[in-house]
Amino acid sequence: MFKFPAISLRNTIFVRLVLTYLIVVLPIILLGVYLYNWSYKNASQDISRATVKQLTYYLEGLNRELEWMELQQFDILEDSELHKLAATWGMMDNAERRSSLNYLLHRLTSFQNSSPYIKDIYVHVRSINKTVSTANAIYDFDTERFDYFHSSAGRNENRLINWNNMLHLSASKQSGKKGGEPLFLVEIELDAERLRDSLHQINIYPDSGSFLISETTGFTLMSHEESNPIIQDYMSEANASSGSTFLLNMNGRKYHIDKAYSDKLGLSVATYLPEETVKRPLSIFYRWAWVFAITSLFAVVVFSYSSYTFIHKPLLSLVQSFKRMEGGALNIQIEHEQKDEFGYLYTRFNHMLTKLQSLIDQDFKQKMMMQRAELKQLQSQINPHFLYNSFFILNSLAKTGDVDRVEQFTNMLGEYFRFITRNGEDHVLLSEETRHSRMYTEIQKLRFSRRIRVQFDDLPKEMEQIKVPRLIIQPIIENAYEHSLEKMTEDGLLRVTYEMNDAEARIVVEDNGDSISDSEIEALRERLDHTAESYEMTGVINIHRRLLLTYGEGSGLSLSRSELNGLKVVIRIKLQEEI
């Protein structure tokens, strides 16, 4: 159940508005009831003007639909596939014939769906002895339809052809031989039910009706079946009347008739309305016009003022507060002395701001704690394989007595582990992160210098001062060595490059290993897109999540196939969200 705040009834806006409305509007209602009994005798002219204009718009709209159909019909006549079908049917194999027929059927269906007034479209192709229809698909050549519409076109009748009290559009493609049969004929059958529905829409009153007539072809379509007797009398009366409005007397009952005619369509549309409906009190009064206008104006002013005072002004204050809140201002409070619904809303709004500020602070702290935890996890993932190999290299150098290289190697190894294990700031300059990653590749060079080559570009000056989370480059390089380059016997290549524009900085790590497939790359991308659902925290996912937490959506890792044929990892850093 809904629980409403306990507010005194006399303080509610609803009661104030109801009382104000009754005080202001009740006299106007009483005045309107009085003036209603003094309504004018005749409003037929105004109704007729509006109705005739509506009927004219209706015919214009119908004409636009037909022009669209004729345009599409012409496009079908000029369709190259249809020409090919009609001219080269005998040279086609069964697959080509079926493909051409299916194409034609698909095009006709698309054409039919483009207009609500199309019931069916036929293409009669004599040369292949086939008729294609959107309703009946492909069947034997319809000689009856073909002959009727071909002969009707030759008689130069209206653009609309009546057949079985259905309106059709017909056009044919001549073969080029004088007096010869056309190559094919395109016939469009209009949907009588949709036309009837459109006639229903122009019936303004419940007891009114309408009908569509073509005097030259004998076509008639009624919105109601009971209109048939009216049409019979209409035909005789319409010929005697040259105006667009007249009265029709049938069985002692008068009907108000409005009609419109279109030369382009050769159609007339008419509506009928019982005269007693027109005679109802609809006319505008003159004697009391100023009294009513002044009273209405006064009512509008009073009601507008009360609405502004009790609703608009408090609501505007609430909307403005919401806009300031959307801009990031959470230290705003709304003061309201009235104990009404807006007072309750303002109290809840102020409470919401306080709660929202608390939640934002809590969420920010949680994210920072999560980022620190993920960094600690990544720090703890020191690869034992790398450590063992480092000691093996150190042992080999010591055996050879190369003291200088032993010193250089131990210094690099010390710097490497000091950067990994230190617990200082979570973010470092990109120059430091790059220096650490370069040192890692130098250590690996001692192992793989003969079969793995490293191209490590210099960091651009404008990117040196960007602050980034620690350990976002070296784990990617380590991943390339471990899963790809170590398996290569010769000509391995690791490349690290940089890109930057106004929106973001990019660090590109790629190799030429061929051990990863496209499906594996796609699987990795899928895991990155659903890091929140991943229970396994790998180094790549760890880095991607920390970049998202730091820089927001659009940052993180992007994986693809490298131009070197291996894996390409792009580290994207949104500069607008830089910490």
Describe the fold and architecture.
This protein has 579 residues and is an alpha+beta fold. It folds into four domains: 1-11 and 286-371, no CATH class; 47-191, PAS domain (Beta-Lactamase, 2-Layer Sandwich); 195-278, Beta-Lactamase; 381-577, Heat Shock Protein 90, CATH 3.30.565. Helices cover 51% and strands 19% of the residues. The chain is built from 16 helices and 18 strands. The strands form four sheets. The chain has a six-stranded antiparallel sheet, sandwiched between helices. A hairpin with a 4-residue loop joins strand 7 and strand 8 (219-222). Helix 10 packs antiparallel against helix 16, helix 11 runs antiparallel to helix 12 and helix 12 (403-421) crosses helix 13. The longest helix has 40 residues, at 341-380. The model is unreliable at 1-7 (pLDDT under 50).
Short recap of the structure:
The protein has 579 residues and is an alpha+beta fold.
Give average pLDDT, whole number. 77
The CATH homologous superfamily of the largest domain is termed Histidine kinase-like ATPase, C-terminal domain
Total domains, how many?
Answer: 4
Shape: flat
- The count of DSSP E runs of length 2 or more, i.e. the number of strands, is 18
- Class inferred from helices and paired strands: alpha+beta
| Percentage of residues in DSSP E strands | 15-25%
Radius of gyration: 42 Å
Strand count, sense and closure of the main sheet?
6 strands, antiparallel
Low-confidence stretches: 1-7
By DSSP (H or I, 4+ residues per run), the number of helices equals: 16
Task: Write the CATH architecture name of the largest domain.
Answer: 2-Layer Sandwich
* Proportion in helices: 40-55%
Membrane topology: Multi-pass membrane protein
Domain HAMP: 309-361
Keywords: Cell membrane, Kinase, Membrane, Phosphoprotein, Transferase, Transmembrane, Transmembrane helix
Pfam family, one: His_kinase
